[in-house]
Protein 1
Amino acid sequence: MGIIKRHSCPSCGKKFKTADAVADHARDLHGIGKPAPVSASPTDDPQCAECGKTAHIVGGERIYPHRPDLFDKRFWLCECGAYCGCHGFTTRPLGFLAGADTRRARNNAHAVFDPLWKSGAMGRRDAYSWLAEQMGLRAEECHIGMMNGDQARKVIQLCNDRRKAAA
């Protein structure tokens, strides 16, 4: 039996299990009920995980000039080229800045990890709890967007091993 999703987004109709999930989706994707823009002060600027320098905030056109749909998004960018996006309409980073190799590893990790919970075989929280245990991390540290390239590649290996063991 599938998960019952009773709550719908008023903008796009996508369904969610909880009203809180709809509110998060509507805020982050559609800007509904969005908080006032947060301005970053120099003390808030994150350090680059790739080179250790301080990053600065830029608009989406700087990172993705070919994607007008991302122009209103915010990103943290380091002079070394590493970057990460921001939560919704804030300047809160969506993890740690990453260069091309780390981003590729994280994307590949999401590609093999996300089906664990998106298939409904387990809940998202359960999937991340399993991953945290396997990685030897605390649950609050276990986010693919916070991982370095080696950690993301370990996620890929763990998920592939799990899939093989289940087959």
Protein 2
Amino acid sequence: MSIENALASVAVTNLDVAAAWYAKLLGSAGSRPMAEVVEWKLPGGGGLQVYALAERAGQCSFTLVVRDIEDEIRKLDGMGVDTRQRTVSSEVKTVMVTDPDGNHVALAEPVGGSVIR
């Protein structure tokens, strides 16, 4: 198998509500490749799909790699998102948050020369 990239996906109950929340988080509106999916292409080549599937909503998790975790925490705080769940290690700083459906979103900043791809 020769895997070239990855695309994360997250199930939600209300696609319009979720799309607005993720647009604030990601800083741009996603595209709609189909009626039940909103998609963001990320600068590193990967992507995130948010899709309507109520029976799986709240059961997903994924990680977004960021350059400046403190800047992202300020943005999340401004959105009214709880950012108290934080960890720091010699390789990564993280904050774990939840979207409106309860899906777990980790934001991670590599530190000390570590690389997350």
